Amino acid sequence: MDVLTLGPLEVPPLAVGAMFWGTRVPGETAHDLLDRAVDRGARFVDTANNYAFWQPGAVGDESETCLGEWIASRGRDRIVLATKIGARPARPGAGTDDALGLSRQAILDQTADSLRRLRTDHVDLLYAHIDDPRVPMVETVGALQEVVERGWARAIAASNLTADRLAEALRAAGEGPRHVALQNRFTFLPPAPGTDFGRQVLLDEAVQDACQAHDVAMVGYSTLLEGAYTRADRPLPEAYRQPGSDEALRTLAAVAAETGLDAGQAVLSWLAHRPARVIPVIGPSRPDQLDSAIAAVTTPMSAAAVAALDARSRRLGW
């Protein structure tokens, strides 16, 4: 499997998302999945300090706690571990609109709590999960840099930032540690113009240009649209239906047939081979889903096929 560089980190071309581990995915199943992923080289693990608070009976500790149990049993050095802070609800029953946020003290407190749940003294990558315009960017970035100085994280990153806010974060870093990655919503089909995803920010053309200009690695979530590319029982979300989307899906199907992949795998392979690479976060709950994703990012895709998918995707809005 290829190795990509994120600042001081080396990661494979996909991240194993643990959003529902410890809630919808039982702990033992999750641990077996992570064993399988690591054995196959998929050792970049993605979680957050609020996963998955919206599930029945959950509070947001579950994913990190589940991973912490695996780390205590298997060892810390087998994975490249990323978590996120800032979007945890400030009180039971609240949502991300009432989050703990990204003030200096909130960052330090949340990071310490995450390390306790993860049973480790450091994470490899610490994301600011959602933008917090209530706090000056220089304070947020300064606190993230302090986390690195304390040895609690090897590198810092952000999620759900616009191009302008990413540029502001990079300026605020000065000569200190800066964001090495940005994780935003991205897939092959762009959503219809004007679609509102709330706190979720798209990896649109402006954001991609900003990342490439400043050597910030791009990470994408919701890349498979919860199986809509492949599963007959998962219709394409209405937000992704617009003039030209059916034609784009026909192009995707043709490329998938050419490469011996299904349509969802073709999306992952495209992400791994396009000139502006995007690391997808995949959320497996079964071994076959994990194996499918690993096969996808390790299956070659011709330059012509990549260009054809790029052209269709850009024509619709990316």
Structural description of this entry:
- This protein has 318 residues and is an alpha/beta fold.
- The chain has a single domain, classed as TIM Barrel.
- The chain has helices at residues 27-39, 62-74, 104-118, 137-149, 163-172, 205-213, 245-259, 263-273, 287-298, 303-316, and strands at residues 4-6, 9-11, 15-17, 44-46, 80-85, 123-128, 153-159, 179-185, 217-221, 278-282.
- Strands 3-4-5-6-7-8-9-10 form an eight-stranded parallel beta barrel, surrounded by five helices. The chain has a two-stranded antiparallel ribbon with strand order 1-2.
Q: Which fold name is given in CATH as the topology?
A: TIM Barrel
Structural class label: alpha/beta
**Could you tell me the radius of gyration in angstroms?**
19 Å
Residues in β-strands, percent: 15-25%
What is the general shape? globular
Can you give the mean pLDDT?
Answer: 97
The low-confidence runs, each spanning 5 or more residues with pLDDT under 50, are none
Q: Largest sheet, if any? A: 8 strands, parallel, barrel
Helix content: 25-40%
For the record, what CATH class applies?
A: Alpha Beta
Key features of this structure:
318 residues; TIM Barrel; 10 strands; 39% helix; 15% strand; globular
